Amino acid sequence: MKTLSTQTTVETTLLATLLALTLACGYSSKNYPAVAGTVPAITQLSPDSVTAGGDTFTLTVNGSNFSTKAVVNWNGTAQTANTTYVSAGQLTVTLPASAIANAGAVAVTVTNPATPGTGMYGSGGTLAETSQPVNFTIN
């Protein structure tokens, strides 16, 4: 008849062996690298120009491949709080009067943000992707 301490020792040894075999078989979380995301494209800005010193205005950005969390970038600055998703082909952004205080050209781009990976064995997510710039004119 086995004693309680011998039985506990055997059970502990078996448990340790099973854990070692499980980990050795590769049952651990995997980190998959992020893949390229969908690149947005701008086809038209409306309006495409305004007069310097004007009031706050709404810019409509038409194009394709806009994600639901896409952000309009005004001269390199993400307009996160001011961008509204309308559809995969249209975004709007409300710009303050200070954004058009001086004459010149401003680069407008759209960024689809990165997405995180999903699950223990899921994808590694996607990278953020930004459109080619389109110039907006402040007269």
Supply the key terms.
2 domains, four-stranded antiparallel β-sheet, Immunoglobulin-like, alpha+beta, 35% strand, single chain, 139 residues, six-stranded mixed β-sheet
Q: How many β-strand stretches?
A: 10
Flag low-confidence runs: none
Q: Can you tell me the CATH architecture of the largest domain?
A: Sandwich
CATH class wording of the largest domain: Mainly Beta
Shape: rod-shaped
CATH homology superfamily of the largest domain: Immunoglobulins
Order of helices and strands: HEEEEEEEEEE
Q: How confident overall, as mean pLDDT?
A: 88
- Work out the strand percent: 35-45%
Helix-and-strand structural type: alpha+beta
Radius of gyration: 27 Å
Q: How many separate structural domains? A: 2
Question: Could you characterize the architecture of this molecule?
Answer:
With 139 residues, the chain is α+β, with helices and mostly antiparallel strands. The protein folds into two domains: 1-30; 41-138, Immunoglobulin-like (Sandwich). The chain is 15% helix and 35% strand. It contains one helix and ten strands. The strands form two sheets. Strands 2, 4, 5, 8, 9 and 10 form a six-stranded mixed β-sheet that branches. It has a four-stranded antiparallel β-sheet with strand order 1-3-7-6, with no helix packed on it. β4 and β5 (77-78) form a beta hairpin. The longest helix has 21 residues, at 4-24. The chain is rod-shaped, with a radius of gyration of 27 Å. 17% of the residues are buried.
